[in-house]
Amino acid sequence: MNARALVAWPLFVALGAVLLLLVGRPAGAQGAPRGWEHRVFRMDPADYRDKADYLEIVRANNNDHLRAEPDFYQHVLQVLGRDGWELVQVERPRASLVYFYLKRPVR
Known about the structure:
- By secondary structure, this protein is of the alpha+beta class.
- The chain has a domain at 32-105.
- The protein contains four helices and three strands; from the N terminus they run αβαααββ.
- The chain has helices at residues 3-23, 45-48, 52-60, 65-82; strands at 36-43, 86-94, 97-105.
- Strand 2 (86-94) and strand 3 (97-105) form a beta hairpin.
């Protein structure tokens, strides 16, 4: 083996290790999700207008319910996210009703 090959070999090994870290494990590797569980979360103002966390967000928005609604949706999604739920889709069939479609790996 010549001197260039001896110098280049550790560089190729290091590059390969970096690529493995960036790419991760192949699909089906141990630790990969076994599937997904799904949840539909219904957001209707009639269901949360009297809840303490919603009222706190309304107060923070100068008692403006219209301005507070997106902040409350964000709050709900953050709470669900801490429990492992990921938002997949949002549906708003009418102005006062929102559905969040969520998924998370099976536990």
